[in-house]
Amino acid sequence: MTTEPSAYHQRVAEEKRAAILRAATRLFLDSGYDRTSLAKIADTAGVSKATLFKQFPTKAALFDAIVTASWHKGGEEEPPPAGDLTTGLTEIGRRYVALLTRPDMADLFRIVIAELPRFPELGEAQFQRGKLPYFDSVRRYLESERDAGTAVIPDTELAATQFLGMISNYVFWPRMLLLQWAPGTEAMDHVVQEAVLTMTSRYAASD
């Protein structure tokens, strides 16, 4: 007799987990991290407190899961294969735009910024579980291009910072101050193209 959960029960568990994450994100944003209880989250998500505590025994564990889920939605794809720096960076840049323009990404950063003075661990979670793994995936891609001989990059960490920064400084960070900031698809694609051009001009190997 198997003890493995059935496909139905796995699906139900995943649906409840997703409902908890959505409810927690909204309540953290509306009421603040400190003023949002796990009991309130369970009620809003439509699950029992026992169900919530089984998956997330603490509020910190729940926030970590929110961060991880939010960043992984845009970072699940395999990195592009090495061999064409322009094509690879263009693909990564467009994925990054898609990630940064999701509403829940801006919401997540607003929660962290608002609560950081009292809960510095939220910033640590955002960095260690979200931004850093994503950043490392881009750095590893640049290393693969360097190893393939298609790029000359003395410092892949700096290069990854440069590339992502050129995109996020237009696409994302103005939204933290300007709620109506919503550049169109053409404008964002142009930013990616210019960032790629800057990177290839600086780092592409000579023929």
From TrEMBL:
List the transmembrane segments.
Answer: none
What Pfam families does the entry give? TetR_C_7 (PF14246), TetR_N (PF00440)
Annotated GO molecular function terms are: DNA-binding transcription factor activity; transcription cis-regulatory region binding
Query: From what superkingdom does this record's organism come?
Result: Bacteria
- Indicate whether Transcription appears among the record's keywords: yes
Q: Which residues bind DNA?
A: 37-56
Sorted alphabetically, which keywords does the UniProt record give?
DNA-binding, Transcription, Transcription regulation
Outline the extent of the HTH tetR-type domain. 14-74
What name appears for this protein in its UniProt entry?
TetR family transcriptional regulator
Originating organism: Streptomyces minutiscleroticus
Q: What is the lineage of its organism?
A: Bacteria, Bacillati, Actinomycetota, Actinomycetes, Kitasatosporales
